[in-house]
From TrEMBL:
Domain ABC transporter: residue ranges: 2-231
Pfam families on file: ABC_tran (PF00005)
Protein name per its UniProtKB record: Metal ABC transporter ATP-binding protein
InterPro entries: AAA+_ATPase, ABC_transporter-like_ATP-bd, ABC_transporter-like_CS, Metal_Ion_Import_ABC, P-loop_NTPase
Domain of life: Bacteria
CDD domains linked: ABC_Metallic_Cations
GO MF assignments: ATP binding; ATP hydrolysis activity
Naturally occurring in which organism (per UniProt): Deinococcus terrestris
């Protein structure tokens, strides 16, 4: 449904990803895991269509463009939370992206936004300015915007960061339900335990795809070592 073939991404002279080939399927909850600077966010941005002209090929659901079918949830800290909008406004942005220029949000859009805010547990905060939210509440608002958009492909960059354990459970259950409803869910995370518990597809990345498969296939000492072992100079096995 979604994937890349032989993808290489360079930022100037720095190679962030090299020769990456991986597929993400509808109905699957996938976790992309790796150390800092491994290229995880870069992979997600390519899938979201946000990096122009990557080297290699990117596949989408036939007949769709990324703008139509992808809901991308960036890392929370990359957003401007001082922007003067409410929780409701942010969730509605999930719909307005779909409306086109000439249509105002209608009753159906308001219904979808209300349902998304209910599902993520922030409906009662809908009139609040987004600058006045806690980290966990902000993450829920981003998820509400994603749900309101109703994309088939959900791409989330570290959605568990800054979220308390009880809320993490709720978020993971929510994402699992989205996959069970037939969406492709791809999450970048540092939390191996949560990924093993909730996901049916793990991708270990360290500039290259180190391993790709079910948690049982992927989660071996050899693969973990190859993904995470870092010397003091920052060189990793993947670079060897
Ligand atoms: N716009 C950019 N310009 C230059 N280098 C970049 C840019 N974006 C990312 N990089 C570099 O590319 C590499 C991969 O970055 P990326 O953000 O994909 O890593 P990541 O695995 O998501 O890391 P983290 O876990 O720290 O978020 C890093 O070395 C990073 O410094």
């Amino acid at each position: 449904m979604l994937g890349v073939d032989n993808l290489t991404v360079r930022y100037g002279t720095h190679t962030a990803l090299e020769g990456a080939t991986v597929r993400f399927e509808a109905g699957q909850f996938s976790a992309v895991i790796g150390p800092n600077g491994a290229g995880k966010s870069t992979l997600l941005k390519v899938l979201a269509g946000l990096l122009p002209d990557p080297q290699g090929s990117v596949h989408f659901d036939p007949g769709h463009t990324p703008r139509q079918c992808v809901s991308y949830v960036p890392q929370q800290q990359t957003l401007d939370w001082a922007f003067p909008v409410t929780v409701w406004d942010v969730a509605m942005m999930g719909r307005t992206g779909r409306l086109g220029w000439l249509r105002w949000p209608g009753g159906k859009d308001r219904q979808k936004v209300a349902a998304a805010l209910e599902e993520t547990g922030v409906y009662d905060l809908r009139h609040r300015h987004i600058g006045a939210l806690s980290g966990g509440q902000r993450q829920r608002v981003l998820l509400a915007r994603m749900l309101a958009r109703e994309g088939h492909l959900l791409l989330l960059d570290e959605p568990l960061t800054g979220v308390d354990p009880a809320t993490q459970e709720g978020l993971m259950a929510l994402l699992r339900r989205q996959a069970d409803r037939g969406r492709a869910v791809v999450m970048v995370t540092h939390d191996l335990d949560q990924a093993r518990r909730w996901c049916d597809h793990l991708v270990l990345v360290n500039r290259r795809i180190v391993a790709d498969g079910t948690p049982d296939e992927v989660y071996t000492p050899h693969n973990i070592e190859a993904t995470f072992s870092v010397s003091h100079l920052g060189h990793t096995h993947a670079e060897a």
